[in-house]
Amino acid sequence: MPRKKKQVIPARKMGRPSKYEGDKTLDAIDFYLNNFHKEPFNEQIPTMASLSNYLGLSKGTLKEWTKVENREELTILLEKLLQKQEVILCNSGLTGEFNSSITKLLLFKHGHSEKVESIGFVGGIGNEQPIQITFVNASTNPLIARSSPLTTVNHPVLNENDSTLTLCIG
């Protein structure tokens, strides 16, 4: 008895259909980027969480969409979101509009970090400790602002108890 040829059925995608709608989705993202600070969003900074909530998606879905071929425009828009976020954080953190601890935490995701440098050692032989430099903004630190209203960095204070060199900026 001759064998029957198997009929090849093309593979179908499993799961839900994608919510990605090309230009309509890109326009919605662009609208969010230009209006995140206005109604209905009222956000201080643009975030992936807020954008994904607006689009009715998870953040993971947004990230997965960037991995699909021919979606370079989507990737560019999401990079713009991150760039806007970084610029707003830097500017608002420098002016004191945003809490410095939260700003520092959020900027870590953008590659920024706090740095403490050791420039030498203090103490006797066998009891050496590194000197650490800490930069303090004199205008926002009430103790320093009251004791020495400095406008330059030329008044370093060395605390030998904990080996820190405090440079007042402001």
Strand order of the largest sheet: 1-2-4-3
Query: Shape from CA axes?
Result: flat
Quote the beta fraction: 5-15%
Question: For the report, how would you describe the main beta sheet?
Answer: 4 strands, mixed
The H-and-E topology, N to C, reads as HHHHHEEHEE
Mean pLDDT: 74
Gap between N and C termini: 95 Å
Note the total helix count.
6
Which class best fits the helix and strand makeup?
alpha+beta
Low-confidence stretches: 137-159
Radius of gyration: 27 Å
Task: Walk me through this protein's architecture.
The structure is a single chain. This protein is of the alpha+beta class. The chain has 2 domains: 86 residues, no CATH class; 52 residues, no CATH class. Helices cover 39% and strands 14% of the residues. It contains 6 helices and 4 strands, in the order H-H-H-H-H-E-E-H-E-E. It has a 4-stranded mixed beta sheet with strand order 1-2-4-3, with no helix packed on it. A hairpin with a 4-residue loop joins strand 3 and strand 4. It is flat. The protein starts with 22 loop residues before the first helix and ends with a strand. About 14% of the residues have low confidence.
